[in-house]
Amino acid sequence: MPKPTDTRARIQAAARDLFARKGVQRTSLQEIADELGITKPALYYHFGSREDLVRSIVQPMLDAGEAFVAAQEARGDVDPRELLEGYFDFHYQHRAEIVWVLTEWTTLVELGLFDTVLAWRARLAVLLFGPESTLAEETRAVVALGGLQDCTIQFPDVPAAELRAASVAAACAALGVD
After folding, report:
1. 41 φ, ψ (degrees, to nearest 5)
2. Which of 19, 99, 100, 133 could be bridged to 129 by S-S, CB 3.0 to 4.6 A?
């Protein structure tokens, strides 16, 4: 008999697949249970709602993003290129989750993910330009950081190293740094 953690991981894997194919809002818990050959009550034993299931899948990404931003803040002296490379790496690693979450704006808002990402960008902009940044600097940070995130999902067939180099170079250009 599988351990509860094994069943939980299987549910999350099946949900990720169905969410990617059908979307979060168009995937029912019954469909996830059917995909696994378990009952809906068995699924409810592990996750009380679709939102709980989605959050359990997205939470590791949120924790990793927060850890990245906090580590950058703890550094003191930030190298803009290293910050951008790390930001790219984070998004590239989590691009599958980002794609299916972005396709469902209501899910993004309901789970507070939209506000979280905007807060990360604001905190990183402070690291790049200081707390008294100008509107021009802040918009360059939005273009650089948002562009990096977009590049990780826009070019799925480009080798990671090549995409990273091109994306970071473009973000550096947007920031006006070498």
Report:
1. -60, -35
2. 133
CA 99 from chain center: how many Å? Answer: 8
Instruction: Read off the pLDDT of residues 2-61 as tens digits, 9 standing for 90 and up.
Output: 455 688 999 999 999 998 888 888 899 999 999 999 999 999 999 999 889 988 988 888
Architecture per CATH, domain 1-48, reads as Orthogonal Bundle (1.10)
- Tell me the C-alpha distance between 154 and 131, whole Å: 31
- Structure tokens, 4: 């509860």
Give the residue extent of every domain in the chain.
1-48, 59-175
Kindly list the distances between the CA atom of residue 59 and the CA atoms of 89, 98, 122, 156, 170, in Å, as whole numbers in the listed order: 18, 12, 20, 23, 29
Assigned CATH for 59-175: 1.10.357
d(CA 145, CA 128): 11
